[in-house]
Amino acid sequence: MWTRIAQFIIKFRLTLIGIILLITVFMGYHATKVQMSYDLARTVPLDDPEMVFLQKFKAQFGEDGNIIAVGLRDSAIYTLDNFNRFRELNKAIREIPGVNDLLSLPEVKIIRKDTANTRFYLDGHYPKQIKDQAQLDSLMGAIRNQKFYMGQIVNQENGATMMLISITKEVMNSSKRIAMTKALVELGDQFAKDTGIQLRYAGLPFIRAMMATEVRKEMQIFLYLSALVTGVIMFFFFRSFRAVLFSMIIIGIVVVWVMGTLSLFGYKITLLSGLIPPVIVTIGITNAIYLLNKYHLEFAKRRNKEEAIAAVVNKMGLAMFLTNLTVAIGFLTLLTTDILVLREFGIVAGINIMALFVVSLIMIPGIFSWLPEPTPKHLRHLNFKILGSFLAYVDIIVHRYRPAIYLTSLAITVVAAFGMLRLESISFMMDDVPEGSQIKKDLQFFESNFSGILPLEIEVNTGKRRGVLNIKNLEKIDEFESFIDSISVVSRPASVISLVKASKQAFYNYNPAKYALPSKAESGYILRYMKGQTDNTGLLKSFVDSTFTKMRISMQIADIGSKRLDSLVHEVIEPRMNQIFEGTNIQTSVTGTTKLFIKGNKFLIDNLKESLLLAFILITLSMAMLFANVRMIIISLVPNVIALMITAGIMGYLGIPLKPSTALIFSITFGISVDNSIRFLAKYRQEQLANGFFVPVSVSDSILETGKSIIYTSIVLFAGFILFAFSSFGGTIALGVLTSTTLVISMFTNLILLPALIMTFDKPKKSKAEKLLIDDFDPGFYGEEEDEAIDLSKIKIHDRAGSAE
Fold it and tell me: Residues near 643 by Cβ (< 8 Å), separated by ≥ 6?
């Protein structure tokens, strides 16, 4: 089959290359339309009961993750000039497109009593113009008695204050958010310049906007860096600018296809999908190295460019297909997850890795058929003496010290297994925020002064119309809120309870001692004022539904990590909540973006474990098709499983948690590392047939020849993935370091442990008549077998010799 494919590719290479270029133009057009993702990554399916509940909650009470907080802690803010500038800043921020509402110290409204109409109404606390510092001090003294705001936007202990800005949903989930946050920061910078007061920024919309900008920047940087680093390695290997240039052009074509695929599928660029282009560059370079090395090898043997190119296509087709397939399987198994961002990542990466195989197999032979013949300088890499000496030493170890290899491998595996037992699944909502960044510092400011900024919500359903205004229900809810307020990592809750207390305080002319729920005697006339409210007045609509049956308790929480957060919600808050409301008709539910994050993290890890298991099964089936031998399948998988175990053990000992970015590497690297086993066993099979099934000689020849390909490609892959260690994002750093580590470990296990296992356990059937699929597989480096016949008289090769390097 591959003989016919080789004939077709070479005969119609000009037409095929033309088709590829047309597809590239088409993909390039759509790539210009690809957009950045500004949505919070959804890790819980839309039909999950808790997700459905959260969506209904948001429809009823509004968004919970649309707040940007601007904070400061400086006593200078309470001087008249600076306070007036702060008021001006508030007014300017209100004018920014996308700002829905704003709450801050200069904008506070207090509840006033309208005795004529038996109702409460909101009125601004500060006059339009403050005359002098004495008036400001008096107004500030009065606002400190407004308990509703103390602990919410003002820290009573140190005077820190924050501005809460709500963002419209349309701007929050679109590219307009970038312009909005930029305008906000520019206004803040000008305020800081004028007053010398530093402002702090936090909140999901702000952080996501900053992250989206950084993702776009890093995607470009890593794309260029991966091309540069792998290109330099390739030049060192082949000593040819032409080889590097045209390989990069071919890889660049597939990168364009990646961006076009994202656009055609309606996907957006996320932190995860932004890694695909650099990954394509790295894997594409390994393909190019295999093809060009095989071309140079065949040319060195034949001294005929036409025959060498024909042999490359004929003999490398199956090899490249299977190695690219195993890598693609590692990505495509992510399609089985219910997590949108992983599915998008898996399908785009998997499809384009297979596209990389097609483009490379067509364009590299096609282009090099038009270039001059390789010179002796280009072929020098075929005899790399230092590498040969190292592999000869490996060969000696495998033949003479197999018991030591097994004992060492067993000991390392046992140690790794104990390390795996120490692995913990922990992630933070702000995991990807760079450590030491201003965003991280600002987040810590809000956690130390206001107990955090991440939203946590509780819905209280009284089960009766106007049940929220029932004094007994209010007392129960107040008891629960007092418990919440006692938790150090949770802010003071805001709810209708706070409004009822503030209303009583207003009724008694703002006496701070009266900030409490009305007694039974008081409730008759105080709640009468509140019953005059409707859901359209603006006083209660964010906290209760139109029938006063359901209410919302809002609070902020520090980013304490998924493990502590899970324990806090399920082992602290919910048990106490159930205890307080036991024996009543009140039903309560903890919800919010932060609560869903807890579930999403568990869901994500479970999905990645399933995808790894599926990748293992599919790759095992692929190996079964190649070898049709259970013993060889097990032998081939053991070194790669041990490599994954060692990486997991290292994570356990170093305290690196299992989270989405680290769990992802296992299914991906398993597919990549199995390539080494396939290439080694393919060469081993060939040597078995050539050496009369004499295992020691076959193993030695396989180590000395295929070992070079394993080392070269491992170096390229290591260099490509280790670049991610220089990212600003913790998840990307973990992905880069751990993937590189796994691939290096896999290189050694496949060079040392795999041949040792073969020598001990392989009992080959001495029958050359037996035909296996692996027999059609060419490992790509230093093969000895003869080529199948291709009718070269039907193929025209244009030799445009004479061009300079």
Answer: 669, 673, 742, 745, 746, 749
Tell me which residue of 635, 639, 633 sits closest to 619, measured CA to CA.
633
| CA-to-CA dists, residue 533 to 44, 530, 667, 727, angstroms | 38, 5, 57, 53
**Cα-Cα-Cα-Cα dihedral sign, residues 650, 432, 446, 74:** positive
pLDDT, tens only, 464-496: 888 887 888 888 999 999 999 899 889 889 888
Instruction: Answer yes or no: are the C-beta atoms of 291 and 312 closer than 8 Å.
Output: yes
Torsion sign across C-alpha atoms 221, 226, 227, 228: positive
Q: Residue by residue, what is the 3-state secondary structure of 651-711?
A: HHHHCCCCCHHHHHHHHHHHHHHHHHHHHHHHHHHHHHHHCCCCHHHHHHHHHHHHHHHHH
Instruction: Tell the residue number behind the tokens 């020691």, with chain if given.
Output: 696
Strands 99-103 and 161-167 turn out to be: antiparallel
Q: Give 81-122 pLDDT, tens digit per residue.
A: 999 999 999 999 999 998 988 889 998 888 888 777 777 778
Question: Which are the contacts of 268, defined by CB distance < 8 A and separation ≥ 6?
Answer: 34, 35, 36, 37, 38, 39, 262
CA-CA distance, 626 to 615, in Å (whole number)? 17
Report residue 109 CA to chain centroid gap.
Answer: 42
User: Using CA atoms, how far apart are residues 137 and 128, in angstroms rounded to an integer?
Assistant: 16
pTM of the complete model beyond 0.85: no
Q: Please say whether the beta carbons of 271 and 732 come within 8 A.
A: yes
Question: What does the block give as tokens for 121?
Answer: 């109404």
| Whole-angstrom distance, CA of residue 429 vs CA of residue 456 | 13
Can you point out the beta strands (E) in 462-562?
550-557
pLDDT in tens, 388-433: 788 889 999 999 999 999 999 999 999 999 998 888 877 777 777 7
Q: In this structure, what token pair is assigned to residue 736?
A: 């880069």
DSSP labels, 74-117: -GGGGSHHHHHHHHHHHHHHHTSTTEEEEE-GGG-EEEEEETTT
Distance CA(209)–CA(181), nearest Å, equals 7
